[in-house]
Specification:
The protein is of the alpha+beta class. The chain has two domains: about 30-165; about 175-290, no CATH class. The chain is about 30% helix and about 20% strand. The protein has a four-stranded mixed β-sheet. It has a four-stranded mixed β-sheet with strand order 8-7-10-11. Strands 2-6 form a two-stranded antiparallel ribbon. Helix 2 (about 40-55) packs across helix 3 (about 65-85) and helix 3 packs across helix 4 (about 115-125).
């Protein structure tokens, strides 16, 4: 046996260092806290799972009316999101969920039904084998996520659900205001921008805009608009029509609603040009025509002046 007074590290050299970089965050489709059940089969599924939850809870004291409404709305939201993924699976198969309460609690953009009991509900449904939940290994940039189990899928299958069975809760905020903060770096000679939703106080202008957008959403919800399936991905949901109007303030500007102000949210807005020909309106079976508004200024002018071309 060699005894030269040297240790193992002296003979073999230092041990190689193993680099353990944290995994990169995965971007899943977000859980829609404003999704509700429209069709009767989906509403019955919500009722069935509500009974499962309440049988597990075995509460001695009944909830206060407001708390009970939030409880039922929370269960409805989870069931609808899980059921929706069986019809329109997200690219990664998972839905990102945010169970944190935030530094200052809920604001006008949050659904107040998803409060502190939200995490407990997800754990209960996981124990019942109705959903799977995973916690991200990434240090930052990714939250926990959920997906339906085979048991849940088997409950959905005989219902023959359609996309028309789902709807957006009309009580959701439709006037969004974001603050863009700009910071200049003398070192890089570049301006860095950060954008965050701003929880504003209502004004007469914001209230008028809200009424206008809500009326537009009610009109679109009742309109006969369809999308002929073209077999391409992603699946198009022609019932996804809830519009929001988004305004922007910069740096230290006070609340105002005269900057940007574009409409967002309609399914047709993100469709590729070649797929828009599949949209049908009022059941007439005719494809849509593209109208170049910039080249119609002359026609608009003559029409406004009651002159014929």
């Amino acid at each position: 046996m060699l005894d030269d007074g040297l240790g193992i590290e002296d003979r073999l050299g230092p041990r190689p260092t193993i680099s353990r970089k944290p995994p990169k965050p995965v971007q899943h489709r977000w859980f829609d806290q404003w999704l509700i059940a429209r069709g009767q089969p989906l509403q019955q599924l919500v009722t069935d799972i509500l009974q499962v939850v309440e049988s597990r809870e075995q509460r001695v004291r009944a909830r206060r009316p407001d708390d009970q409404n939030n409880h039922q709305r929370m269960i409805e939201g989870v069931v609808c999101n899980l059921a929706y993924t069986t019809l329109s699976p997200p690219p990664t198969g998972w839905l990102s969920v945010n169970t944190r309460n935030g530094a200052k609690g809920k604001n006008r953009y949050d659904n107040r039904a998803f409060g502190k009991p939200y995490r407990k509900l997800l754990d209960l449904l996981a124990e019942e084998g109705l959903l799977e939940r995973q916690i991200s290994d990434a240090i930052r940039g990714e939250v926990s996520s959920i997906r339906p189990t085979e048991r849940f899928a088997h409950m959905v299958q005989p219902l023959a659900l359609k996309l028309a069975d789902f709807a957006s809760d009309p009580s959701g905020e439709v006037i969004l205001l974001s603050r863009v903060a700009r910071t200049y770096s003398a070192e890089t000679r570049r301006t860095r921008k950060s954008k965050k939703l701003f929880d504003y106080d209502d004004t007469e202008i914001s209230q008028d805009y809200r009424v206008a957008v809500q009326e537009l959403n009610a009109f679109l919800d009742a309109a006969d608009i369809e999308f002929l399936d073209d077999g391409l991905e992603p699946l198009v949901d022609p019932r996804s029509r809830m519009l929001t109007r988004r305004f922007t303030i910069f740096d230290e500007q006070v609340t105002r609603f005269d900057q940007v102000g574009r409409l967002f949210g309609g399914f047709w807005m993100t469709l590729k040009r070649e797929r828009r020909k599949q949209i049908r309106i009022n059941g007439d079976g005719e494809p849509l025509l593209r109208l170049d508004e910039w080249k119609c200024d002359g026609a608009y002018g003559f029409s406004h002046g009651h002159k014929s071309l």
